[in-house]
């Protein structure tokens, strides 16, 4: 798996963990049982683990790397390139 693929896979897993966390939060609003609290806490730990993995990938990077990460987030969450970059987009040669 390339670095780019690893980033996209980590983003996908973090997004899924976020959805599970939100669902557990909604269930907890309706049912205040100990079981629902435990499910919510477990989902929170899962999300924290996924976000920590993303932070390790992203920490210490250059501004260009940050732009590429923002581009990946935009593609995953919104389906289009990021509208703003701090650095010029790298030129690609047409074949």
Main β sheet profile: none
List the helices and strands in order.
HHH
- The helix content is over 70%
**DSSP helical segment count:** 3
Q: Which strand-content bin applies to the residues?
A: under 5%
Oligomer: single chain
Structural class: mainly alpha
Output mean pLDDT: 78
Which value, in Å, is the CA radius of gyration?
A: 17 Å
Detailed description of the structure:
With 95 residues, the protein is mainly α. 73% of the residues lie in helices and 0% in strands. It has helices at residues 3-30, 34-58, 63-78. Helix 1 (3-30) runs antiparallel to helix 2 and helix 1 crosses helix 3 (63-78). The radius of gyration is 17 Å and the shape is elongated. The relative contact order is 0.13.
Summarize the SSE layout with pairings:
Elements: H1 3-30, H2 34-58, H3 63-78
Primary descriptors:
95 residues
Kindly summarize this structure in a few lines.
This protein has 95 residues and is an all-alpha fold. 73% of the residues lie in helices and 0% in strands. It has helices spanning 3-30, 34-58, 63-78.
